[in-house]
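Hello again, I could really use a second opinion on something today. I owe you a coffee for this, so here goes:
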Amino acid sequence: LNAALQKNTPWTYPYRYKTNTYSAYVSDVLNITDKLIASAAIRVDHFNNKGSYDQASGEYTGSYDQPAFSPKFGLVYHPVKDKIAFFANYQNGFTNMTGTDYNGKTFKPEEAAQIEGGVKLNAFGGRLNGTISYYDIQVKDIVRPYAANPNFSIQDGTQLSKGVEAEIVAKPAQGLNIVAGFSYNDSKYEKADPDVEGRRPATAMSPYTANLWIGYSLLTGKTKGLGFGFGGNYASDNKIVNSVYYGVFTLPEYVILNATVFYDQPKYRIGLKVDNLTNKEYWIGYTTMDPQRLRSVTGSIAFKF
């Protein structure tokens, strides 16, 4: 590069790659009966890798194609119209992969298949809304290091993730609002490098999380517009390092509490919010350890026009 600059001659980066993706998507929703709805969709992708550019010949070499199909199906059944709904769906996804394995074979797209089912509730004239669901996600054709020669890769990895998610939004009284959520995720490498096989991925975050927020606003009287809120978030232990070679490093569980008070009027709004009431030291991470903010107080004034 220095020599090229000194001679005042043009220089180009020696590696050049070109890829194109062509996609088509079609979907339809069918009302089988007044209470039963079905949906179906499919996405077709054609991934074309032109290969690497050879400056000497002026041509691309090592080109290959990766076609992929991604179907989706769903059913929704309302035993009680607009109040209770049972749902189930299947969907498939993929990620195109570049490169070849230890035998020189071109990689296929990594593929994931998800099955999900649950129930939705709308009761008491909309004062209680809730959803609970179960999911199972199978990932296959994961590219991983080849144990016999770590300089190469093999495409036979599999991963399983399954869990439960629940959410409730309630308005039990005038001015009172409650939002609560819970999730559980069980994730592990089923077929992988012996260093991590059977273990929870370091990118899977905390297996248990929960949140709660309670808000109340005065709707009548001289203090109309005055409101309060209180709630928090919970996350269980998070293994950001989890392997035989490196061992296990776990971020501890935490509960963070927050609160707010405000005065909302037609022409202005005054608010005060305190995050991390207890001044809790905690960390989050995605294979990393990131310290989070301690107690913070935020005041706000807004004018409405």
Summary: The longest strand covers residues 153-173. Helices lie at 2-6. The two ends are 60 Å apart (CA to CA). The chain has a mean pLDDT of 91.
